[in-house]
Structure formats: C-alpha cells, structure tokens
Design goal:
The protein contains three helices and ten strands, in the order H-E-E-E-H-E-E-E-E-E-E-E-H. It is α+β, with helices and mostly antiparallel strands. Strands 2-3-4-5-9-10-7-6 form an eight-stranded mixed beta barrel. The N and C termini lie far apart (about 70 Å). The relative contact order is 0.17.
Length: about 260
C-alpha cells in the first residue's frame, strides 16, 4: 500500500511539473510575443500620430545627402542622395548618461524597416537597451551616434522571445537595405558584410569605427546586435551597414521600400 502511495504521489508530481513546463514554454514562446507585438504596434501608431500632428523635433545630423567622408555626392534618381556591445535584454553600451541628440530614455523616436524580413516587418526604435526597453522594441545604445549622423548608430534587439524582432538577422546579406525614419527623413543604410559572430565582451563592435567592421575611417554607420545562438546568449551576431542615401518624408517612401 505504501509503495502504491509513493508511486501515485510521484506520478502526480511529474504531471504537475510537466504542466508547469508546458505553461512556461507557452509563456516564453507565445505570450511574450503577443505582448511585445502589441507594445511595438502601439509605439509605431503613437509615433505616426505625433508625426502627422505637426513639425517633428529631432536631433540635427549633418546635412542630408552628405557622404560619409564629408563630400557632397551627386543626386540619385528617385530623389535620394548618396551618403556616405552587443546586447541581449539588460546589456548596455559603454557608460551611461544623457542620450545622444536629445532622445528620451525608454521612448520611441524612429521606425526601422528591413525588406529582407518581409513587407510587414516594422519595429520601433527606443532609446536605451535596458531589459524593459527591449521588451517593447529595438533599443538604441546610449552614447552611440544619432540616426543619420557621422559615427555609429547602434541598435540592439532580441533574437527570440518578445516578438523575435531580430530572429532572421542571419539571413541578411551585403547590399540588403535597412531603412529608418524619424518622421521627417528616410535613411537607407546598406549592409556591408555578412553577420559577424563575436563574444559578449567585445564592446568594440559599437565603436564609432568598429575595428572588425572593415570600415577604414569615420562615416555614417549602423550596427545591429542580437544573441547567438538562436536560443542562447554565449555569443553575439553583429551586422554593420553604412548610410547609402536619405530622402525627405515629403518625397515619399524610398526605393528600397517601394518594391
């Protein structure tokens, strides 16, 4: 009789443990994504409402259309002009303090589009890379350059959970477009090389001119960082891009999104 009671108790414990594991998996894989998608859609809607309500206050980067080396290139067709540490939730760039360009901590200030990830892929970019920030979208590293400015505009995002915003980062290839808008200007960056794998302590990947990027001097760069492997965080995947062109929002969507 006692043996039966022990077996029955153990069986009930196993069933309870299994149920809890299933609930945890559902929460991690599904519910965090539902909440994150809702938060990101809401942030984009609020930004678009703000932008449609009147003039947008934003940091003033160098003149639209300047090349990365400071020269002024010829205009392209379609109204565009040529332009010249890796984190998971809670990781931050070197140092703290005031956000660059007047961005407000924890607040969305831009929307990112990556055509390679599908026509419906659009994520808000918020200031900071704290745990709570990355639950709501992509995070701009403190003390990296403002959008479109000379330097390195560095952005972190979850690979998995919380909407899986950077799940498909390994699919990015040289020449792929990463397009952002701050409500007044479209910024089209072009991926410069295949994703780079490194250790979490390699914080130099968000330097103004990252040593491993292949960039040879100051320019207008973009860095994307996310976790590697897909369900782990022992390493980071890094994508570097350079500003390829800008376009006033009043001129319509850039060519990289028109298709």
């Amino acid at each position: 009789m006692r043996a039966r009671l022990v077996v029955r108790t153990l069986s009930e414990l196993c069933v309870t443990a299994g149920t809890l594991i299933v609930l945890l998996v559902v929460y991690v894989l599904y519910w965090t994504g539902v909440r994150a998608d809702h938060a990101m859609d809401g942030a984009i809607d609020r930004l678009q409402d703000q932008w449609s309500a009147g003039p947008v206050e934003r940091p003033r980067p160098p003149a639209t259309g300047d090349a990365a080396d400071g020269s002024t290139p010829p205009a392209r067709g379609g109204g565009e002009r040529a332009a010249a540490p890796p984190a998971r939730g809670g990781d931050r760039a070197r140092g703290t303090g005031a956000a660059p360009g007047g961005y407000r901590d924890g607040r969305a200030f831009a929307v990112m589009y990556i055509p390679r990830f599908g026509p419906g892929w659009a994520k808000p970019v918020l200031q900071g890379t704290g745990t709570e920030v990355l639950k709501k979208g992509l995070g701009h590293y403190d003390r990296t350059a403002p959008l479109g400015a000379v330097g390195n505009f560095a952005v972190a995002g979850h690979r998995r959970t919380y909407g899986d915003p950077f799940k498909d980062v390994p699919e990015l290839r040289p020449g792929d477009a990463v397009v952002l808008t701050d409500g007044t200007t479209w910024y089209t960056y072009r991926v410069d090389r295949a994703p780079y794998r490194t250790r979490p302590e390699d914080i130099g990947v968000i330097d103004p001119v990252p040593a491993a990027s292949g960039f040879r001097g100051p320019g207008r760069y973009l860095t994307l960082t996310t976790c590697e492997p897909e369900w782990g965080h022992s390493h980071r995947l890094i994508v570097w891009a350079r500003l390829d062109g800008t376009r006033p929002v009043s001129d319509g969507r850039p060519g990289a999104l028109s298709g």
